[in-house]
Each structure stands twice: as C-alpha cells, then as structure tokens.
C-alpha cells in the first residue's frame, strides 16, 4: 500500500516538474522589450517612446499573469495528488474490508454464548441483546433445538414443528417466511445471515457450536 501511494506521488511530482520546466519564462517578454530599447536607441520620437513604455508595461503584466498561472497550476496539482492518494487509500481499505468479510463468511460468526429467553422474547448473542417477536423466538428456538440434535430443518419441517402439523401438510415457503422474519427481527444483516445458514437443498441451521446454546 505504502509503495503504491509513493509511486503515484512520484509520478505526479515528475509530471509537475515537467510541466513547470516547459512553461515559458516569465521574464521572456521583458527581455525582448529590453532588447528593443538597447538595439533601437535612435527611437527618440514621443510616440515611439510611448510605444516602448506600453510594451514594457505589457511585459510586466505578462510576467505577473504567468506567475499567478504557476501558482494556480501548483494548487491544482497538489489538490489532484491529495484526491488521488485519498481515493487509492479508500480503495485499498475497501479491498481489505472485503477480504475480512470474506474470511468471516467462510469461518462463520464466532458465538461464545446464545441464550434464548422465551419469557422475555429476547435472545442474548455474546454481549448483544435482541428483542424479538414471539414468532421469531419460536423460530429461533426450533433452530436451536435442531442444532443441539445436529439436525438441518427444511422450511416445511420448521413450520410443522411450530404449527404442530405434519411436515407433509406444510408449505416450504411458510418456513422460509418465518426464517426471513427472524432475520428481519435480528436487524443486523451480517449477524442474521451468518447466524442462520441456508444449506442448499437441505434447509436451515444455526452455524454455531451447539455447546454455547442455552434455553430459558
């Protein structure tokens, strides 16, 4: 990261140096006017002298204008360098964050304690407390019990356990809806997506160690 930013800074500094070197000399016009004075000392008429004075003033104005242009160019290059460095740093931070998120997703969320308090309609996840609806607590409790038995439940099986009906009489979409509402109740997308895993063609499971689960 540091090497990349340093390389970008060096490129911009090199471009600035080339730009300033190739800018015309601020005193070039004044030098030409001075040369006119020296080489044409026979210009003695009032109009000719006035013309030379105007040329001299124009040279001074040109010199001042070019100096202001140099300052403006310097400020713009400095601003461009700062913006480019900030953009690259931000991009690298995003890349690192995506890598960290990828590692978390591959590893799963690290839960040291999951306490389900049915009487309070709350779940304590590590040091965080989530207030859930009664339906969400029921869904989470079913998943927790299944996890302690090393089972993966389909949407129809989740609906069957909660409704008390046979799984054959339950719709898969009903269980999927309960899982969605549970995730919505948890609120934090990262927590909900990593806590409640969806295993393709099998069903849903809590992706935590069953030894950390406690029911109240």
TrEMBL record:
Molecular function per GO: DNA binding
UniProt entry keywords in alphabetical sequence: Membrane, Transmembrane, Transmembrane helix
InterPro entries: Sig_transdc_resp-reg_C-effctor, WH-like_DNA-bd_sf
Claim: Cytoplasm is one of the keywords in the record: no
Top-level taxon: Bacteria
Coiled coil: none
Membrane-crossing segments per the record: 71-97
Entry keyword Membrane: yes
GO biological process, alphabetically ordered: regulation of DNA-templated transcription
Record protein name field: OmpR/PhoB-type domain-containing protein
